[in-house]
Amino acid sequence: MRKYRLFFTNISKEEAWINQITAQGYRLKKIAPFLGQYTFEEHQPIAKNSSQEFSNTETFFPQVRIDFRIFSKQETFKDYLNLFEDYGWCHIAGTKSSGFQYFEQTHPGCDDEIFSDPSSRAGCYQRISHFCLELVILYLPLLIMFSSSGRLIPDFQHWKEWYFTPGLWEMSGKNFWAAFLFETPFALGRGLSAALFLIILICYGYFGLKALYYYQKEKKH
Amino acid sequence: MNLSKYLPLTETTWYILVALLEPGHGYFIMQKVEQLSEGKVRIAAGTMYGAIENLLKQKLIVLVKSEDRRRKVYQTTDLGREVLSLETQRLRDLVKIAETYGL
Q1: CA angle A41, A43, A44 (to 5 degrees)
Q2: A104 touches chain B (CB under 8 A)
Q3: How far is A166 from chain B (nearest CA, A)?
Q4: pLDDT for A128-185, tens place per residue?
Q5: Count: domains in chain B
Q6: What does B6-17 look like in DSSP terms, one character per residue?
Q7: Which of A46, A62, A89, B58 is geometrically suited to a Cys-Cys bond with A105, CB 3.0 to 4.6 A?
Q8: Which domain holds residue B48?
Q9: Cβ contact (<8 Å) for B45 and A83?
Q10: Range of the domain at A42
Q11: pTM of the complete model
């Protein structure tokens, strides 16, 4: 079954939400984070012969935990995953540069948390915050360039100027509509992309600051 | 060299440096620390990864060669051992004072 929910930087809320669903007998199978889409499937109890030492396998609902880490090399990413695997965490979603890494307990005997002290839990939020704010700083020069060219705030009054097709406004009937509709995506790109860019940067700035707030909060625990 | 910048060590860091006086990989460190602390200190995966990264950066531990192709193996450096001694002495001093107060 598919569920939709958007979490941006609040990892503990996201974990709680996922685990509240898995407690009802589902397992998280796939995630499409930008769509806020979580795919769950009915929980298949671990076959008795694969973990004989645990008697309660039918009632074991694996906890899901989330870390945030970005890796520059595939090799260091593999080492990270191997460490978690040794602890009994199965990696269910995330790539070397996606940031958010989702893990699932493989058996009830292993840890059910990935952080054992408040400062490392806080450190996770700090990494999210740094990632967002670095992105904003990186793209700031581009934003300044856009704003100095005067195209940052869309000039809705002169929207017709977004269309470059020569003689478009002199056409009529089917010819006009064909040319108009064809060029519309490009025109929207020309007129709105700078503003969209600004909105995206503002969002990242907001998330970066929110994550920084969570970091300060966790540190104080 | 002034090593006071490394002190005080957090409990987690102290335990890891002690555990790595002999070479070991991440999960091995966790098991050793749990054994040394008689079950009181159990370092989780995310915490362990971060702690190892920090210790490597500070050059208190170093990557060593091993036959284990799947896992990275670390060991406490001479600097790490020195910092550990300083910290342990600091703790001894505190304990001595505490004992005079009957704590």
Answers
A1: 120
A2: no
A3: 59
A4: 999 999 999 998 888 888 777 766 777 778 888 888 888 888 888 888 888 888 888 8
A5: 1
A6: G-SPPHHHHHHH
A7: A62
A8: 9-100
A9: yes
A10: 2-105
A11: 0.83
pLDDT digits (tens, 9 = 90+) for B58-85: 999 999 998 888 899 999 999 999 999 9
Query: How far off is chain A from B26, nearest CA to CA, in Å?
Result: 6
How far is B29 from B16, CA to CA, in rounded Å?
7
Q: Any CB–CB contact under 8 A between A80 and chain B?
A: yes
* Residue B23 in domain: yes
Distance CA A209, CA A54 (A): 44
Residue B1 included in any domain:
no
Residue A51 has pLDDT above 80, yes or no: no
Is residue A84 situated within a structural domain? yes
| Chain B nearest-CA residue for A110 | B44
Is the distance from CB of B9 to CB of B87 less than 8 angstroms? yes
Instruction: Determine how β-strand B73-76 pairs with β-strand B24-25.
Output: antiparallel
CATH of the domain at B19: 1.10.10.10
Residues A97 and A128 in one domain: no
B→A contacts (Cβ < 8 Å), by residue, are 10, 12, 25-27, 30, 42-51, 70-72
Mean pLDDT in residue range B21-44:
95
From the list A79, A82, A115, the residue facing B46 with the nearest CB is A115
In a domain, A113, yes or no: no
- The domain total for chain A is 2
